[in-house]
Request: fold
Amino acid sequence: MKIKSYKNAVSIKLLKSIPEYDEHFLVIHLNNKRAKLDGYIAIHKKNGKLPSFGATRLWNYKSNKDALKDSLRLSKLMSYKSALAGLPYGGAKAVIIKPKGKFSREKLFEAYANELNKLNGMFVTGTDVGLTIKDLEYMKKFTKYLVGYNSKPEKGTALGVKNSLDSALEYLYKNKLCSDYSYSIQGVGKVGFELLKILIDAGVRNIYIADIDKKKVKEILDKYPFVKAVNTKEIHNQEVDIYCPCAMSGSLNHRTINDLKCKIIVGSANNQLLDISIGNELHKKGILYCPDYVVNSGGLISVIDEYVYEKIDGKRLRNNINKISLVLKKIFRESSKKDLPPFIVSNDIGLSIINKNSVE
Ligand code: NAD
Reply:
């Protein structure tokens, strides 16, 4: 299907006016007024007949332009994630603008599922920020282009973050006993909470959390009284060894960068760097920023396993997720050899793989 022939395709003229546009394969506007569905599906790259993968986000975007930009940036990141994880699929992403006021989740997701059907399997999706497994189960009634209800991707993502943490500790301190260090986690949703549990199980006790959802924070403090909760505006500037952004994009920006006191940044959030200059600045400051899309690829690896195989095999999945640490080690080695920030090394590797894989 060519971009121009799709009824709701966003025009190339509009896309070209947005800096986040990267010669995307197809971007469609989701627009069903009756169901209050408004948003975008962006397919960044396509590899032949294979579907492109990326989860669906439901968020309070201030404008359509903000939502479109986010879909372009996130879908591009998915292509890099897939490439670095050694997977042949192109990257994609859907963002839905959370309707203002009252709305029916059922109607919204039924309409969205029908949009997925129109793409005929070109795009396969799961849950990102704002969606739950319940939403996915409901959509299953209307479409088959879904993944993530068997493989528990948030657990895979959190495991990948832990593997990445181990690689970073080994690289920087030659000591990967994670209980020897202190942590702050921004966002204790699906992944942040799984990560918190992994760290606690590994003996970590010096740990700060923050979330805009006070109920989630309270539940955690009730269960783990040694965890310290701080204001969401102060989570990045705690005196800790490791900062784990597990909430929204752009947590590392011109405002927060000067307050950071950590030595390592490793978290699940997509697009943690507001822009490239922030990544370069972190490198100059001697803060080891582990590239987000490598660190958080455990979720994609999990859903691809679910897509390819009929039955989940925990051992196979863990083995594949454990390979993230090998990829990171390679990136750190190159980074130190060439004195380049790890995210630049990773982007270079990703781009060369994407150029080889993308066939329309
Ligand atoms: P989620 O919606 O379950 O959790 C996000 C949490 O962040 C929520 O609890 C929310 O209240 C909180 N939050 C939002 N803004 C905040 C702020 N300013 N300060 C503190 N907390 C804030 O989403 P999730 O699935 O856990 O995903 C978290 C991040 O990881 C997202 O960026 C997502 O794209 C990325 N990610 C998730 C997966 C996955 O498997 N779910 C995989 C790869 C990447």
The chain has a mean pLDDT of 95. The pocket of nicotinamide-adenine-dinucleotide is lined by residues 128-130, 153-154, 157, 186-192, 210-213, 216, 232, 246-248, 268-270, 296, 299 (CB under 6 Å).
